[in-house]
Structure of Uracil-DNA glycosylase:
Amino acid sequence: MNVKIEASWQKRLQEEFDKPYFERLVTFVKSEYGRTNVLPPGHLIFHVFNSCPFENVKVVILGQDPYPNPGQYYGICFSVPEGVAIPGSLSNIFKEIHQDLGKPIPTSGNLDRWVAQGVFPMNSVLTVRAHETGSHRNMGWETFTDAVIKKLSDERENLVFMLWGAYAKEKAALINPEKHLVLTTVHPSPRSADYGFFGCKHFSKANEFLRSRGIQEIDW
């Protein structure tokens, strides 16, 4: 199957695109876009891949579902477009960066500047019906994004993986901890951030690791 995606990812993921599960997934997703309001806009499903080539990735942040409210999700996990109110989880991420590194809290929730530096924030499910969280779970996206994580772990070295919350922590099984730094804590959601996300210092730890490997750190 021919999927429009950045060339370095195309080369590594073509074997997934050719598998029967992915064809079934595409059939499902196309039918959903045809009959209901699905996020993100179709051309942005692989936006994080198109914005951050395989060789540029330094830090992987894993989420679960896209934001389900129209106007929020445009293909980059936790990020929202300029001018859109900052969601609770992202607000807590910014608070932790402020506590950890002393950075001022941004007024914009757009994380494109992170992606440009090699941060790869990816949801495990890449589409969702508007206002229906989890509506596209267990249709094949998780198989695909698990393959992405494993490909990054196997073919790259010295990456930082940030796994926040029980769901993301399960993905640690796909990552080689001898080649990469795996950081885990609770989810930054307002429901759980007080139980370990605040004070986790993942952002300074990530930069210390990158620096120790001679890799340009992230300006969070």
Notes: The helical segments are 7-17, 20-35, 47-51, 88-101, 112-115, 141-155, 166-169, 202-212.
